[in-house]
Amino acid sequence: MKIQWTIDKMKCDGCVETIAQALLLVDGLSDVTVDLNSKSVAFTADHQAAVDAARQALQAAGFPARG
Fold it and tell me: Which of 11, 19, 38, 53 is the most buried (most CB within 10 A)?
């Protein structure tokens, strides 16, 4: 399933790197894209548990997702 969320706290390239690294550690995600201009993240998840884990990983990294 394709997921797209807004990350309001994203402000710089460092934020983009932190968010990307957090999501790359989540099993079941692919095609991770982080866009600073739109303050968004998009990815494909194999199952709902991966979506939940992605949201938790972003929260733990200090970048709560909206959407």
Answer: 19
